Amino acid sequence: MELDKTTRKKLIWWLVGVVAFIWLLCNLSLTARILRNILGLLSPFITGITIAFVLNVPMVLLEKKLFANFTPFGLPGKRFKRPAALGVTLIAFGGVLAAVLFWVLPGIARSLSALAMQLPGLLQTLEEHAGHLGERYPQLAQWLTDRQWDIQHLEATVMEFFQEKAGSMLGSTLEMLGAFVHGITNFSLGLVFAFYLLLQKEKLGRQGKKILRAFLPTLATEKILSFLSLCNKTFSGFLSGQCLESFLLGSMFFAVMSLLQFPYALMTGLIMAVASLIPIFGAIIGCLGGMLLMWIAEPDKTLWFLLLFFVLQQIEGNFIYPHVVGNSVGLPAIWVLTAVTLGGGIGGLFGMFLSIPLASICYTLLKQEVRRKEKEKKQIIRKKEESPQSASISPQKEKTS
Fold first, then answer.
1. Nearest Cα residue to 340 out of 277, 246, 269
2. In angstroms, rounded to a whole number, what is the distance separating the alpha carbons of residues 139 and 146?
3. Rg of the chain, C-alpha, whole Å
4. What is the C-alpha to C-alpha distance for residues 325 and 238, in angstroms, rounded to an integer?
5. Distance (Å, rounded) from C-alpha 194 to C-alpha 196?
6. Which of 163, 176, 325, 336 is the 20 to 30 A CA-CA neighbour of 68?
C-alpha cells in the first residue's frame, strides 16, 4: 500500500518525536542540565510574566472603574487609559512597599526588641521551674548534672570549626553575593518586560491568536484559547480575592487587638495576614504564632487571644471570605483540602498556594467533559427511542397512500 505525501510527513514527525523522547530518557542528567540552562536564560521573562500577571489584576480594575471616562485635556482617553491605570498601580505598590519599610518593619523591630528584653525574665522563670522540678525529681537533676557541657571544650570546637570552614564560608558568601546581584538583575529586566506586556497585552494577544490559527486546526485553537481564558479567570479571581481577604483579616486583628490593648498587635496582624495566604493550614499557623507571642509577653491573655481568634475567624469565614473570594474558584471543600494537602507535600508553601487554582481548573475541565458526555449519551438514547416510532409510523402511511 502506497502512502500519500501528508501521511508520510506525519509518520516522519512521529518517528522523530519517538526517537527524541527515547534519547531524552536515556540521557536524563544531560536533559536536566539543558533544562536548567534554558530556564536560567528564560528566568527574566518568566519573572516578567509573573509580575505582569500580578499587576494586571489591580490595573484592569482601575482601568474599568476609575479611568472608564478618562479624557485628559479633551483628548481621546483610550490611548492614555492604560498608562494611567498602570501608573496608579505602581504608585499603590510603591506606597505599600514604603509603608512596609518605614512603618511595619520599625514596628516589628520594636516588638522584637521588647521581646528580647522580656526573654531574661522568661528564662529565669523557666530556671525556677527547672529548680522545682529538680527538687521533686532528684534523679533527673543528677542525670542532667552529670552531662553538663565543658564550656572550654565547646569553645575550642567552635573555633576549630570556623578555622577549617573559613575558606568555604568565604566562597559561599561570594556565591550568595553573586546570586543576589543576579537576582536583582533578573528582577529589573523582568520588571521592564512586564511593563511592555501590560501596555501591549491586547496586541500580543492578537498576534498569539494569529499564530495559533495559522499553524493549528480550528478546533485545537479554540480549545487552547478556552483553556487559557479559564486559567486567567481562575488565577486572577483567586489571587485578587485571597490578597484582599488576607489584608482585611490582618487589619481586623491589628485593630481589635490594639483596641483591647493586647501586646504585639502589629506583629500578630502581620502574621495572620501572611499566614492566611496559605489555604486551610494558614489559620492554624497564624493562631500558633499569635499564642506564642501572647504566652511570652502576657501569659494571662493567651486564652483570651485564642477566644478572639475563634471569633474573628468565624466572622472572616462566614462574612468576609464568601463575599470577597466568593465562588471565583468554584471548588468543593473536600477537593480544596485534598488539593492543599497534595500541593503542600509536593511544593511546600508555594505548592499550597498554587494547588487550589490548579485543582479548580482541572475540576472545571472535568465537569465540562462530563456534561458533554452526558449530553451525547442523552442524544443517542433519544434517537434510539425515536427510531422505532418512525419505523412503525411509516408502514401506516404507505397503507393509507
1. 277
2. 11
3. 31
4. 7
5. 5
6. 325
Element (H, E) at 190: helix 151-199
Judge residue 325's burial from the number of C-beta atoms within 10 Å of its C-beta, 0-12 exposed, 13-18 middle, 19 or more buried.
middle
Mean pLDDT of 363-377: 85
Q: How far is CA 155 from CA 138, 160, 163, 169, 170, in A?
A: 30, 9, 12, 19, 21
End-to-end CA distance of the chain: 52
Q: How far apart are CA 246 and CA 287, in angstroms?
A: 14
Yes or no: say if 280 and 336 are a contact pair by the CB < 8 Å rule: yes
pTM over 0.70, yes/no: no
Q: DSSP state, 138?
A: H
Residue 39: Cβ-neighbour burial (10 angstroms; 0-12, 13-18, 19+): exposed
Unique residue bearing C-alpha cell 411509516: 394
Q: Which three cell numbers stand for residue 342?
A: 497534595
Q: How far apart are CA 119 and CA 297, in angstroms?
A: 9
Q: What is the pLDDT of residues 14-29, one digit of tens each?
A: 888 888 888 877 877 8
What's CA 364's distance to the chain center, in Å?
Answer: 19
Residues 6+ apart with CB under 8 A from 67: 77, 81, 84, 85
pLDDT digits (tens, 9 = 90+) for 141-178: 565 555 554 545 655 665 665 556 555 655 566 677 77
Reduced to 3 states (helix: H, G, I; strand: E, B; else coil), residue 148 is coil
C-alpha cell of 38? Answer: 534554558
- Residue-wise pLDDT for 210-226, tens only, equals 998 888 888 888 888 88
- How much is the pLDDT for 137? 66
